[in-house]
């Protein structure tokens, strides 16, 4: 480098799984733009990449061989100080390399080095009148030989003096000749305006009805709560939580602030968007996985510039660059889709709480009919304020739930291996005859076989981990997927002595075949991952249900959420047991949530409704609490299962999962052994025995995409101990091992 004086250097983080930042020199010409949080284009060994400036350093003596930053495409830094800090928090809390944490915060198109400025902004041509032709007489003179020009002039005049040319030609069928004629006559000019591509621009519902007394009470209590304490709105299905959110957000936006509304991806339907747009109109930016790169970049830029103030979207919308952020709503806060499946494995609810803190007092509002036990635990400890909406709108009753015991209830003989009782059969047949609709829910297909006694319903579990043991063929044994414990497959039940039975869940296709044969006149729609892979496809299926073109909707957990069809009078949970005996400590919680949510789909109209739950474990607390629509009953029964003398699980401890995957089984298991040994050593030598290490054991899903999978679980009451462990591991950056703090799935 030539010249004297001080040189400035930037610490740049690249979007790669590396923990350290790279140093680049800041050219004088870019000094104004190269600030913390800014995107920069920097040279790397082969070509160049987009990175984020983490810090600026002044140094008196020049460092040798430091390359200069090539470009800084943005006038304003892409990341505000709060979002840059949120990246650091994710990196530290989840043990993810900072580069990956920052990569998650900015949308994909903004990392493209080919177009570092992002996809070009679309612009549109607008015709603007430049001269007024006041009197009728003058009008007749000016347009004497051009009556069509007069039509065009008056159309634009009626639109307020300017209009997009595309609108004039496409909608009003005016020709370009006529439009150009107005320009040559000096009556108008053509301007170029940047336009925001918004595929949702046409959606809007009428503004919502006024709030019920209950809803008003919750709105007022939320507004009166301390802004730095998150609020949980626990409202039964059909209690109108969305109206409460919209009302709260209206207050936030009216005060000049911005807001984020997070919804599970599956619930981000055109109806949801229309309801939000019905209140906020063009202030809304929708962030959806189905957007094109250009649409995504436009939505991001409109928020960053403050042109739009309300962001709606799934998990990643927690990073939306909303200016003057006043509130974040996390709807269905218990939903597992809020957890990111790859590094940084953040939970959007927890990231929302952290972001609100960093933004200086933005409010967090969580909502659910079936909150997670983690959130309920925080309400008990006073860290979250809990408000309830105990009744459905219009005091409509929650539907009665019949629990049908599959061990004893008479079955339809034609059903064969499919658990189909006469009670459910009669209910479905009756609804069809009356022209009403039916929802049939099947848990996700079991991938693991478990053993159950057909007489008493007992399922053998691991003595150390209290999760169901699963059956393996080679060698024939029952195995615990947390700690690796093994025991022989029992031929008779340990409780009652009856011969045992091996069970595995039923698939939705199998059920569809049977139901179609059983009710040949019924129009059936199936909704699962196979039928909903394309954009909006689940929405199209639901639209058919809403229009009455479907008699029976059957599917997996997807159908449990947010549907509101007044003509659905029968909801059947065909086999609750698969979910109940998943090898996961949250199996009961997930089953409770699923049954309670799907039960909430029945009886939303004046005809009422009834729910049928088929199970071999009718006395299980998850089934009983769901049948009573009682979150409180469930929490009271479930929490003792996760506290001493039982094996500890969240929320009484924090949990981190280390997953090792590899092509060779032996090598994968050996790495898992070394990870477990490292953790045990760290626990005893440096953390005074604060860690409990389980495993290694094969993951319940033992092979995935050709890779063998093993895992090790670490529990600790002290969050700090787990933080130290994940950060120490981050420094090692072992490629075959992924770290998942606060995992929502242990499969
Ligand atoms: Zn038994
Ligand atoms: Zn175990």
Give the helices and strands, then pairings.
Blueprint: E1 7-13, E2 22-25, E3 39-43, E4 48-59, H1 81-94, H2 98-105, E5 123-129, H3 136-142, H4 147-158, E6 162-164, H5 165-170, H6 176-184, E7 188-194, H7 213-224, E8 231-235, H8 241-254, E9 258-262, H9 270-280, E10 284-286, H10 293-304, E11 310-313, E12 325-331, H11 348-358, E13 363-368, H12 373-380, E14 385-389, E15 401-405, H13 422-433, E16 437-442, E17 449-452, E18 470-472, E19 477-479, E20 486-487, E21 501-503, H14 508-518, E22 524-527, H15 537-546, E23 552-555, E24 568-575, H16 577-580, H17 587-599, E25 610-615, H18 621-627, H19 631-638, E26 654-662, H20 665-685, E27 692-704, E28 707-716, H21 719-732, E29 737-741
This protein binds zinc ion (2 copies).
What features would you describe in this structure?
- It is a single chain.
- This protein has 747 residues and is an alpha/beta fold.
- It has 21 helices and 29 strands.
- The strands form six sheets. It has a seven-stranded parallel sheet with strand order 10-11-9-12-13-8-14, sandwiched between helices. A six-stranded parallel sheet has the order 15-25-24-16-23-22, with helices on both faces.
- A hairpin with a 6-residue loop joins strand 19 and strand 20.
- Helix 1 crosses helix 2, helix 1 packs across helix 11 and helix 7 packs across helix 8.
- The radius of gyration is 30 Å and the shape is globular.
- The two termini are 55 Å apart.
- The model has no long low-confidence stretch (mean pLDDT 88).
- One zinc ion binds next to loops.
């Amino acid at each position: 480098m030539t010249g004297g004086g001080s040189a400035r250097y930037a610490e740049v983080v690249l979007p790669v799984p590396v923990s350290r930042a790279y140093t680049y020199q800041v050219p004088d010409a870019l000094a104004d733009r190269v600030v913390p949080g800014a995107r920069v284009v920097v040279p790397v060994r082969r070509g160049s990449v987009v990175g984020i400036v983490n810090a600026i350093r002044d140094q008196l003596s020049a460092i040798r061989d430091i390359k200069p930053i090539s470009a800084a495409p943005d006038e304003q830094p892409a990341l505000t100080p709060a979002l840059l800090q949120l990246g650091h928090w994710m990196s530290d809390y989840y043990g993810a390399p900072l580069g990956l944490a920052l990569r998650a915060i900015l949308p994909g198109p903004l990392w493209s080095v080919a177009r570092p400025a992002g996809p070009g902004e679309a612009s549109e041509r607008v015709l603007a009148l430049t001269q007024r032709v006041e009197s009728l007489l003058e009008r007749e003179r000016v347009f004497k030989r051009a009556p069509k020009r007069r039509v065009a002039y008056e159309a634009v005049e009626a639109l307020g003096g300017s209009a997009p040319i595309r609108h004039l030609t496409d909608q009003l069928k005016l020709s370009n000749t006529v439009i150009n004629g107005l320009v040559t006559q000096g009556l108008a000019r053509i301007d170029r305006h940047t336009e925001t591509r918004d595929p949702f621009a046409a959606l809007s519902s009428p503004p919502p009805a006024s709030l019920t007394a209950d809803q008003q009470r919750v709105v007022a209590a939320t507004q009166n709560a301390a802004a730095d304490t998150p609020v949980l709105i626990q409202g039964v299905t059909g209690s109108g939580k969305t109206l409460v959110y919209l009302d709260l957000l209206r207050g936030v936006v009216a005060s000049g602030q911005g807001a984020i509304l997070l919804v599970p991806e599956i619930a981000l339907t055109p109806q949801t968007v229309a309801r939000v747009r019905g209140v906020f109109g063009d202030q809304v930016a929708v962030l959806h996985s189905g957007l094109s790169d250009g649409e995504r970049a436009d939505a991001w830029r409109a928020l960053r510039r403050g042109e739009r103030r309300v962001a709606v979207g799934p998990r990643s919308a927690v990073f939306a660059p909303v200016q003057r952020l006043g509130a974040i709503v996390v709807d269905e806060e218990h939903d597992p889709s809020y957890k990111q499946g790859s590094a940084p494995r953040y939970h959007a609810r927890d990231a929302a709480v952290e972001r609100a803190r960093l933004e200086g007092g933005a409010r967090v509002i969580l909502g659910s009919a079936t909150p997670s036990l983690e959130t309920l635990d925080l309400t008990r400890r006073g860290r979250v304020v809990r408000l309830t909406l105990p009744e459905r709108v219009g005091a409509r009753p929650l539907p009665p739930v019949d629990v049908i015991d599959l061990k004893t209830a008479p079955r339809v003989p034609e059903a064969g291996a499919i658990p189909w009782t006469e009670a459910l059969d009669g209910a479905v047949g009756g609804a069809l005859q009356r022209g009403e609709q039916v929802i049939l829910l099947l848990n996700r297909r079991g991938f693991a076989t478990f053993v159950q006694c057909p007489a008493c319903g007992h399922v053998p579990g691991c003595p150390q981990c209290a999760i169901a043991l699963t059956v393996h063929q080679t060698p024939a044994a029952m195995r615990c997927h947390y700690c690796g414990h093994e025991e022989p497959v029992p031929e008779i039940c340990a409780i009652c002595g009856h011969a045992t039975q091996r069970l595995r869940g039923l698939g939705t296709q199998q059920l569809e075949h049977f139901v179609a044969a059983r009710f040949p006149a019924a129009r059936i729609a199936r909704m699962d991952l196979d039928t909903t892979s394309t954009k909006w496809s689940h929405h199209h299926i639901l639209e058919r249900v809403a229009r009455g073109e479907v008699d029976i909707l059957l599917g997996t957990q997807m159908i449990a959420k947010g549907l509101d069809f007044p003509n659905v009078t029968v909801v059947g949970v065909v086999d609750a047991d698969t979910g109940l005996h998943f090898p996961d400590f949250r199996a009961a919680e997930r089953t409770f949530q699923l049954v309670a949510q799907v039960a909430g789909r029945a009886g939303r109209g004046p005809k009422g409704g009834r729910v049928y739950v088929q199970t071999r474990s009718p006395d299980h607390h998850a089934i009983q609490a769901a049948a009573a629509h009682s979150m409180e009953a469930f929490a009271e029964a479930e929490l003792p299962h996760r506290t001493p003398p039982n094996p500890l699980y969240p929320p009484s401890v924090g949990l981190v999962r280390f997953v090792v995957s590899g092509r060779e089984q032996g090598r994968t298991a050996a790495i898992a052994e070394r990870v477990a040994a490292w953790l045990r050593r760290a626990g005893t030598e440096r953390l005074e025995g604060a860690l409990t290490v389980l495993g290694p054991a094969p993951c319940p899903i033992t092979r995935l995409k050709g890779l063998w999978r093993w895992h090790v679980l670490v529990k600790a009451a002290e969050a700090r101990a787990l933080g130290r462990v994940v950060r120490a591991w981050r420094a090692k950056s072992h490629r075959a091992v992924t770290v998942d703090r606060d995992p929502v799935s242990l499969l």
